[in-house]
Amino acid sequence: MSEILANPTVQELLTNLAAGEINLATGLVWLILAALVSLTGGAIGGMILAGKDLGYKFSAILGGIFGTASVIPATIVGLFVLNFLADL
Question: Are 59 and 42 within 8 A, CB to CB?
């Protein structure tokens, strides 16, 4: 683990994330983080809404797919808007 954190590329990525800079690498990190959070939230929401009717596993799969499908485009547009506003 210490070898990974001592890598200059990883240190630069962590510095950019902490500083709030948006570039390609940090944008991908935020996109993956948003996808994971939306996957979890969609699965929980699907289980709550349709768990008894469709089965909990199937509704969690559908909720995860539909939750992620709606968040990824919104995250990409949001990152472009933040990058544009940061340049003003």
Answer: no
Q: How many CB atoms lie within 10 A of CB 6?
A: 9
Inter-axis angle of helices 8-19 and 24-54, nearest 10: 70
Q: pLDDT (tens digit, 9 = 90+) per residue, 54-65?
A: 999 999 999 999
* Predicted model pTM: 0.81
Question: Would you say 38 and 82 are in contact if contact means Cβ atoms under 8 Å apart?
Answer: no
- DSSP single-letter state for residue 55: -
Note whether 79 and 31 are within 8 A (CB): yes
The per-residue pLDDT for range 17-56, each reduced to its tens digit, is 999 888 899 999 999 999 999 999 999 999 999 989 999 9
Residue 10 is given by DSSP the state H
C-beta separation of 17 from 26 below 8 A: yes
For 65, residues 6+ apart whose C-beta sits below 8 A from its C-beta are 42
